[in-house]
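hey so i finally got around to running the thing on that chain from the lab meeting. sorry it took forever, my laptop kept dying and i had to restart like 3 times. anyway pasting the input first so we r on the same page abt which one it is
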Amino acid sequence: MNSLLIGTAGHIDHGKTSLIKALNGFDGDNLKEEKERQITINLSFSNLKLKDKHLSFIDVPGHKDLVKTMISGAFGFSACLFVIDINEGLKEQSIEHLEVLEILEIKEIIIVFSKCDLCQNYKERGQEILKNLNFNPSSVFYTSIKEQVSINILKDYLLNLKNKNANDDLIFRYYIDRVFTLKGIGTVVTGSLNEGKISVNEKIICLDNQKELLVKNIQNHDENCEEIRAFNRVALSLNCDHRDLKKGFILSKKGVFKGFLECDVLIKAKRGLKNEKMLFCVGSKSVECKLVILKELDNDEFFAHLVFKTQLFLCFDEKFILLQNNRIVGGGRVLNPVSEPLKKEMKNKLLFLLKNRDFKAVFGFLKDIHKMGFGLLSSYQRFKLSHKEALDLAKKINGVFVDEKNLNVYNLLALDEFKKIIVFILDKNPYAMFSPTSLSLRISWASMEFCEFGLKNMQNLLDFKNGIYFKKGTDFEKLKQRNNNELYEILKKQGIMPQAPYNLYEDLDLDRKSGDEILKKLTQEKLVVRLSHNLFVEKKSLDRLMQECLKILETRILDVQKMKEIFHLSRKYAIAYLEYLDKDERVQKKDEKRFLKTSI
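ok and heres what got predicted. didnt touch it at all, straight out
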């Protein structure tokens, strides 16, 4: 189901709520305080339907002290009914609401002059007011709630507006604006769905508390839906306690968005900007931030760095508004939603590229500053690009290796660093045996695919056999036997406290596959005994330990604590040796204690 989300905006008492009531019969001012004060305080949501046409209305307050509420509603607008009392013209909140619409880039602004029945020359008056606007409205209507004809003309226009086309490639993101419970249904949240789609029985996550949720039911203005996409007002029934969720929390797909305590932004501030604390408003969320100007640009624009007290899960190009003392300072869009520690000069270079959406140049920039590779796993959050789009773009960059499997992009200069590491290992140990897997575990910044690429580019130094790379000119069979003997000698020396296999392999510069094969061979030859997944003991050392244990059992019992004290073992070793001792027919186990059967 597609609908158009139409909001109201304008100064207090210019007739926004009355206009909605005239259009669809819905009175949004239903709170006791709203009725007593005769003003709108909360957002109200209603709809207008005719055949297959569906309009959703978001009515916002016009009072100057409720601008934060107005902003949270405006984030859901696809179009706006901008209401002006023709007798009063543009007032303080009229101007402020227009600034909000400009920041949020809401293009479909319909001017509705209200109370025209109280103005004799309303068309002339309307033209005078329109001259003060710095934009061309989509359309202009002269109305009075006492003249149904004027309302019907506006209604017909709205019902013939084209739905805003949703981009199906965008990922579901949904800011909660209300949370409540219904008897027999449970927790329900509502919000404006502006990106992506959602289906019944789909698993989602609340990013703010990392709780995984199941969508039990979906409604759009009391109608059940199996699936719904932007742009719509949406109610979701979820399988959680309503106390787990709050207004401003954001729901999305798992694994796409990470939280950060900072971001870099482009701000438009017509009245200037200072390094001060602000209120950062995005969706239905508002949090305090500390603003640091990075660079002043032309046309009242600034690059700035924002620091938050709580993690936000922002996305590239996401719109926001800044408030201070409940007044609008400015707003703009998020350019860098992740933590990217750069000096100011370099940060500004990156932000210029992001501002212009020159992602190819952005990738080239990141390639140069992250010489050991940068990731594309968060490409949607950082650039609003799918993994495929990001990979396709990365392949067009000169001087890179693209690891498609792990979504990494490496500057080819990293290859020189990789080669230095291999040469260093061979200088230290000419009997080293490499595999892409073992090297990727050893070199923190290198993926297995990059290691394989690097090894293949060292054919002048390395030979390859059976999946193993080794020093060029070395006899492979003699190399294996040498490492076999070295590993066995180390296990003999370590006795009953041997290292874990991966530590042994690292000491000998062995890849895991070769090391595992050597331990398997030593076990088959009964030179080594495998006691557990990562515990291999030289057989003679194990036999001597078992003899000592049997001798001790002639006079006393053995348990884990006694094994630790007598042989100075860790709990892991003590348990493994006692379990091996249990295999001896002369030993009996009772209540985790070991006895000689003849001693019971």
